Amino acid sequence: MKIYEFEGFPNPARIRIALAEKNLTDKVEFVSVNVPEGEHQSETFRAKNPSATVPLLELDDGTCISESTAITEYLDHIGGTPTLTGTTPKDRAKIHMMQRRAESNLLDAVAAYFHHATPGLGKHIEGYQCAEWGEHQKHTALKGMHYLDGVLASQPFLAGGDFSMADITAYAGLGFADFAKIAIPDEYVNLKNWRTRVASRPSLNA
Q1: Strand blocks (E) in 60-114
Q2: Under a CB-based contact definition with an 8 Å cutoff, are residues 22 and 66 in contact?
Q3: Mean pLDDT of all residues in the chain?
Q4: Domains in the chain and their CATH numbers?
Q5: Is the pLDDT of residue 112 over 90?
Q6: What is the pLDDT of residue 197?
Q7: How far is it, in rounded angstroms, from Cα 53 to Cα 6?
Q8: Is the pLDDT of residue 206 over 80?
Q9: How far lies 62's CA from each of 29, 48, 144, 164, in Å?
Q10: Is residue 2 a contact partner of residue 24, using CB atoms and an 8 Å limit?
Q11: Best CA proximity match to 121, nearest among 74, 171, 54
């Protein structure tokens, strides 16, 4: 298997965490795609992923799978018993629900702020920017943090009692927020404590 990525970006980080959780890191060849230099827009890469985004998983038979959630689903089901995406219909539904909430209300919102309300990756990459939209999405991200803090008031992880891909997404979102200088408000103690606990996992230390 190959993972096309740009190391340090939030979505590739999600896949690296999932690989470490499943003890699959040594089964993958990492291929760097220089996004800041526009390599993701090349015809060669677009032939593999028309969306021109990383990460991208390429299987040994040439099948290409994009989107972090889809890649995580695949990895979770080839590496022993699924642990990140749920085993029962109820658990799977809850994990996917919370994953999407963490993605749209935190990670994607921070990304929109970064790409629209800051210089982002530079005009040669960003193209169209709308600062007003970016600032609006910053407030969306802060509201997302508030929501997640409330969820964590009554359970250890975002989808219940077990660590899942929802937690991976939220953790990556907070890392991106740090980079974009959107701080977690001090009163969101549950979210901060959760982040500390997640950061101590072997997969994060790896």
Answers
A1: 64-66
A2: no
A3: 96
A4: 2-78 (3.40.30.10), 89-205 (1.20.1050.10)
A5: yes
A6: 97
A7: 10
A8: no
A9: 14, 9, 37, 28
A10: no
A11: 54
